Amino acid sequence: MTHALHLTVQHPHPGLAIATIGGDVDMQTAPALRSGALEIIQQGHPRLVLDLAQVGFCDSAGLSAIIGIWHAAQEAGGSLSLAAVPDRLMRMLSMTGVDSLLPVHATATDVTDSPPASAKR
């Protein structure tokens, strides 16, 4: 496993940010993911999509970071969606029931093509 995490951000619509994550999300890199995502939310982008297409590995620390990001987005009046979730992480989301809280999309484009979430949880 590598311990480098890359985060790039796009802002396709006001209030919406797509954070493309590259690398492994583990005990070493999960804090960077969480702090980077919280910074995006605090900068006025409460609707956040994590594009995980370039994530090679995600462990329970990564899952914990995702849950923390979801809470922060909710507190900011926004939402968190996941896109291109790797199979192993999808199994963790399903086993823990987190998949019932977070919308999961095949691609980040699926999220940007849909209207803003009017029914926030």
Task: Describe this protein's structure.
- Helix content is 36%, strand content 31%.
- It has helices at 30-42, 60-75, 87-96, 108-112, and strands at 5-13, 16-25, 47-58, 79-83, 104-105.
- Helix 1 packs parallel to helix 2.
- The chain is globular, with a radius of gyration of 13 Å.
- The N and C termini lie far apart (35 Å).
Mean pLDDT: 89
How many strand elements?
5
Ends apart, CA distance between termini: 35 Å
Instruction: Determine Rg (CA atoms, Å).
Output: 13 Å
Shape label: globular
Low-confidence stretches: 117-121
What portion of residues belong to β-strands? 25-35%
List descriptors.
disordered C terminus; five-stranded mixed sheet
Topology record:
Layout: E1 5-13, E2 16-25, H1 30-42, E3 47-58, H2 60-75, E4 79-83, H3 87-96, E5 104-105, H4 108-112
Helix pairs in contact: 1-2
Nutshell version of this structure?
This protein has 121 residues and is of the alpha/beta class. It is built from four helices and five strands, in the order ββαβαβαβα.
